[in-house]
Amino acid sequence: MNEWARLPDLSTEKDFGGDTFAPIYTTTVTVSGGKVSHGRASGRARSGDGVLDLNLRMPAELGGDGQGTNPEQLFAAGIAACFHGALSLAARQTPLDPAGISVAATVAFGRDPEDGGYLLHVDLEIKWPDIDPVAAVPLVEKAESLCPYTKMALRGTPTTIRLAS
Fold this sequence. Notes:
Layout: E1 29-32, H1 39-42, E2 44-47, E3 53-55, H2 71-92, E4 102-111, E5 118-127, H3 133-146, H4 148-155
């Protein structure tokens, strides 16, 4: 017998209080170099709680063996899952059934023409069978404002970079 997972106790009405960022959940993932001392090419990504523990490999398109996951796949999974959750929350508040929603994230890695470094480009494709697009568009827009991944992609995210002692 399959049991339904309990939805998180999150809402757009009650989660905010105050003028500063208030973390609801925090996680840490550490990447360390592998055989070639290059985290992206042969490293390991491990979460602090050990639930995520996987080998990283360069995709074949970038000269790697393609025998493991890579940062772009992980980011695509994260943004698709987060946007799916935000859209599902917005749908339930209307109330529409979010059960048919699927979100595909395509992440492209390439050169940044401004500085010659690297840049990501993200495309999200939402499929929601049997929903009137007129009803769906405002919910997609609301999900865009709710999803921290799309906020990060559209307006940046506060980031601290420091060398540990």
